[in-house]
Structures are given as C-alpha cells and as structure tokens.
Amino acid sequence: MSDVTAQTDLTSQQQLRLDVLALVQYDTAAAKKAIDDIADDPLKLELFKRQYTLAQSEPTAVSRTTKALQGMKEALPLFE
After folding, report:
1. d(CA 19, CA 46)
2. Mean pLDDT throughout 53-75?
3. CB-CB contact of 55 with 67 (8 Å)
4. Strand boundaries in the chain, DSSP class E
5. E strand or H helix at 61, and its extent?
6. Is 67's pLDDT higher than 50?
7. Is 58 exposed, middle or buried (0-12, 13-18, 19+ CB in 10 A)?
8. Three-state SS sequence of the chain
9. Angle at 68 between CA 67 and CA 72, to 5 degrees
10. In whole angstroms, what is the distance from residue 56 CA to residue 68 CA?
11. What are the tens digits of pLDDT across the range 1-46?
12. 10 Å Cβ neighbour count for 21?
C-alpha cells in the first residue's frame, strides 16, 4: 500500500479566480462578472473583497457582486 499525497499547484491567476468563486459562494454568474472586471489584478481583488463584505444587504450573489464591483471601481482612482 503506497502513501500518495495529491498536490495541486495552482498558478496565481487560478488561485485568484478560485478565491473569487469561493467568495461569491460558487455562484458562477457572479464569479464570471467579478473575474472579468478584476482582470487578475491583486489590488482590484482586495478592493472587491472589502466591498463585497460591505454589500451584505444585497439579496443575491449577483447583485452583491455588482454593488461590490461598483465600489471597487470608485475606489481605484485613490491608488493612481
């Protein structure tokens, strides 16, 4: 009997996208929308995560994602 441990090596892009998918509770429509707007940018991801937390009053993952993306876009000029 061999003791084999499966190891998955993810790229930074894959990990970022997996983080988004998990954050939006595996709602693929919300994840697609967020991934398209975040464009694999770590700063955008961090802003999105924080805005997503603030958008708790939104009833669905897609509407919460939309609100979080708007907040992310509004905050981005602060970093330019």
Report:
1. 11
2. 97
3. yes
4. none
5. helix 61-75
6. yes
7. middle
8. CCCCCCCCCCCHHHHHHHHHHHHCCCCHHHHHHHHHHHCCCHHHHHHHHHHHHHCCCCCCHHHHHHHHHHHHHHHHHHHC
9. 120
10. 10
11. 444 444 579 999 999 999 999 999 999 999 999 999 999 999 999 9
12. 17
Please give the DSSP secondary-structure letter assigned to residue 60: S
Structure token digits, residue 4: 């084999």
Place of tokens 């954050």: 23
Q: Would you state the pLDDT for residue 24?
A: 97
Per-residue b or e along 39-54, where b marks 16 or more CB atoms closer than 10 Å to that residue's CB: eeeeebbebbbebbee
pLDDT of amino acid 7 = 54
